[in-house]
């Protein structure tokens, strides 16, 4: 039997993506609160997400999102990692408020421990990609548009990690095709 590497690339990347989701799930979390959500985007949904990113870029004027929208088309899978809001009742002040009670008046301001939790989950997922020699890049732009599309209801602070397996990492050395306004 002969198996060309190119013919099994997507299957192998989806295997790595599943392991990345496991790593994100099992990453340590503040006070043990399991508020992380993890989602795999693949197939036609990547094209749909890219199109939504182009629309969002046009709507907001954030032109780098156009570059990222084109960039994710080089991936076979994207891992989305987000967090639900949970106040940890530590009164640590890292969110900018004196106490958790003061912060409760502003529910859209994230608890800093939630942000740390999503960062640790992202790091765990990316370490799996690195262990498998799979190219990846953390993109908040992907997560921001996933938030707009309500891919992860109840979550905010979402990040996307596109993965690829090609001879050159498509997520670095990127050149924007959008002219810079002077």
Tell me the number of helical segments per DSSP (H or I, 4 or more residues long): 6
State the low-pLDDT regions, or none. none
The SSE string, one letter per element, is HEHHEHHEHE
Strand content: 5-15%
Structure notes:
The protein is of the alpha+beta class and 182 residues long. It has a domain of 126 residues: NADH Oxidase. Strands 1-2-4-3 form a four-stranded antiparallel sheet, sandwiched between helices. Helix 1 packs antiparallel against helix 5, helix 2 runs antiparallel to helix 3 and helix 2 packs across helix 6. The protein is globular, with a radius of gyration of 18 Å. The mean pLDDT is 92.
In short:
The chain is α+β, with helices and mostly antiparallel strands and 182 residues long. It has helices at 9-26, 44-60, 64-71, 100-103, 112-131, 140-148, and strands at 36-42, 77-84, 135-136, 155-164.
Keywords:
alpha+beta; four-stranded antiparallel beta sheet; 42% helix; single chain; 4 strands; NADH Oxidase; 182 residues
Summarize the helices and strands and which ones pair or pack.
Layout: H1 9-26, E1 36-42, H2 44-60, H3 64-71, E2 77-84, H4 100-103, H5 112-131, E3 135-136, H6 140-148, E4 155-164
Antiparallel strand pairs: 1-2, 2-4, 3-4
Helix pairs in contact: 1-5, 2-3, 2-6
């Amino acid at each position: 039997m002969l198996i060309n590497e190119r013919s099994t690339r997507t299957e192998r990347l989806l295997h790595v993506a599943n392991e990345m989701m496991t790593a994100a799930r099992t990453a340590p979390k503040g006070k043990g609160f399991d508020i992380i959500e993890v989602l795999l985007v693949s197939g036609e949904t990547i094209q749909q997400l890219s199109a939504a990113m182009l629309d969002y870029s046009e709507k907001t004027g954030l032109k780098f999102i156009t570059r990222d929208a084109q960039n994710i088309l080089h991936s076979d899978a994207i891992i989305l990692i987000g967090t639900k809001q949970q106040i940890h009742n530590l009164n640590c002040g890292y969110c900018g408020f004196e106490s958790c009670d003061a912060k409760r008046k502003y529910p859209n301001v994230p608890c800093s421990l939630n942000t740390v939790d999503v960062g640790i989950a992202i790091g765990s997922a990316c370490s799996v990609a690195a262990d498998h020699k799979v190219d990846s890049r953390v993109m908040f732009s992907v997560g921001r548009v996933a938030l707009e599309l309500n891919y992860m209801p109840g979550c905010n602070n979402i990040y996307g990690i596109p993965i690829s397996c090609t001879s050159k990492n498509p997520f670095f050395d990127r050149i924007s095709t959008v002219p810079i306004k002077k």
